[in-house]
Input
Amino acid sequence: MSPRLAIPVLIAVFCASAQAADEIGKDTASPETPEQEIGVLETSREQVRGFSVWLGETVNDWFGNRPFEDGGRVTHGRLGLRTLWRQDDGFDTNVRFRARFDLPNLKDRAYVFVGRQNERELVSDQSEAFTREQLLLEEQRREDQTGFAGLGVGLRENIDFRVGVRGGLKFFTQARYRKQWELSAQDRIEFRETIFWTNRDRFGSTTAFDYEHAFTPVLSLHWQNAATITEKTDDFAWGSSLGLFRRFGDDRMLSGEMIATGETGAKENVDEYGVRMKWVQPVYRDWLIGEFIVGHYWPQREERERERSWAVGLNLEMRF
Output
């Protein structure tokens, strides 16, 4: 398939898939999960949640005598298992974890965050659309997955400052700004700027700009862009995607996108381009979410001609 044919094929497949998914959502019910499997899922979530609450209580006690039960919360808790296969790379799996803790003894806008994810994406505050798991790329090195912990403070409504430590006791800091504007009832833009510092990269920044146009309450067009630069690179690593997103109720969505990534100053400014389709839906209740992604890409590898590569990803995310 040539890149010129990718656009009409993407639109045709998207429309057909959307119609099929709509019928499935209306006419069929999810099969019942065996009681034993339900018990394992419930127990696993309770254990993860219990550990997170214990961690929140422990850290909260470091800062004072006010008990965690007095306004403490664990929010944005996510435990994800990611599996992918890519024609030019093979299989890859990884586990990601993150949670935010609002602690009574820190008061006001301060919070603690912990987790495990790709180190470069953590530090640069990369947009989700351009993370390696969403691009269906394997980790370049296993050690790129790192644990982290840190303290954040909301300075204003749209600004927060974070300082943290990641694997190997390596420190990083971030100053983050985020703002949304409603241009009309159908149009919205969002701007995000993150300035960060690490021992390796020194100062750097990630700029993200997203535009959304709603054709209907359930169908919208998204144009997403992000660029990252550091003192060490002097060039921008960038990504851009354009796609249609169709919702079928809570946490149930079908999307089709054209996407490109690259780096300015490189011999090939466009490192890879392609198309991807994604289906997201709850697997069990509203806290176990399944995600299926299929993509067809044209990557540039060293001095060889641009190749073609199919990729498939299957992700499970537990919210707690």
The CA atoms of residues 12 and 18 lie 10 Å apart.
